[in-house]
Queue: 2 jobs
Job 1
Amino acid sequence: MRVGFGFDTHKLEPGRPFILGGVQIEHSMGAAGHSDADVLIHAIIDSLLGAAGLPDIGQQFPDTSPEFKDIDSSILLNKTLRLITEKGFFKPIIAKIEKPQAIEHLEEIVGVVNGIMVARGDLGVEMSPEKVPMLQKRIIELCNRNGKTVITATQMLESMIHQPRPTR
């Protein structure tokens, strides 16, 4: 098994969009950078490149290249996935949907990952449990329409055997 480690930091500055994981978040400041400065996707790219034993994101997509000026980092992620696949390395990226806030950006998330894990138990703790089955169905349909893997995960806690409500 190969392991990669990635991290990314950018200075925040006024007037820039704040993009995290391919999702633009309303904020007065955003990350400064040559590309869209999405620190989450950049960290993922660096970890994938590191695991494959390839040069880091700065060498693959230099900030001196006009080709990468203001580029959407999900495009860089797709280029990275193609590169590591050509080199014989590929690990799918699965996003775990466990918070209601992720639902607001579900289509954007599905667009940049290989699959989605629906964490039913976590969602049931974070929102009204009766909403989870319909939400699960919506996520599965979206993944199917986009040709993405979907995993439904349900964790039965020991405490739930004796109590109907989760206690974590």
Job 2
Amino acid sequence: MSGFSTAGISRFCAQRRWYVVAVWIAFLVIAGYSTATYLGDALTTDFESLTDQDSVVGLALLEERMQYTDPEQETIVVDSTSLTVDDPAFEAAVEGLVSDLRAFEALVDPDGVLSYYELAASDIQDDVNLAEQLVSDDRQSLV
């Protein structure tokens, strides 16, 4: 039987088990050292498009010519256990929150803050439809 058959390799490993364990440990140490030394420069978390895709070119033009920045977007849910969106106290609380948010001009784009009550009072039917989608079925929660 050949020494390079699976039976021969198994026999060798069984007869010299501590030698095999030492070789595996040495292999893992060398692999870890090599990874830490040489692979660190090859890996990155940066993303860069290698082609001039239309979306990349368009975004670059927006940033260059119009000082465009992509703002963060957050959604605020206002909920009450006793009031509904139709109650004046609920409306006052929401409008106060909206005005407070718009006052933080350094952090918030005032034009980007939408209010259910402003959309519901709009003359545009699509805005009114959108406003109704922002209210829960029990009318006690508002996005």
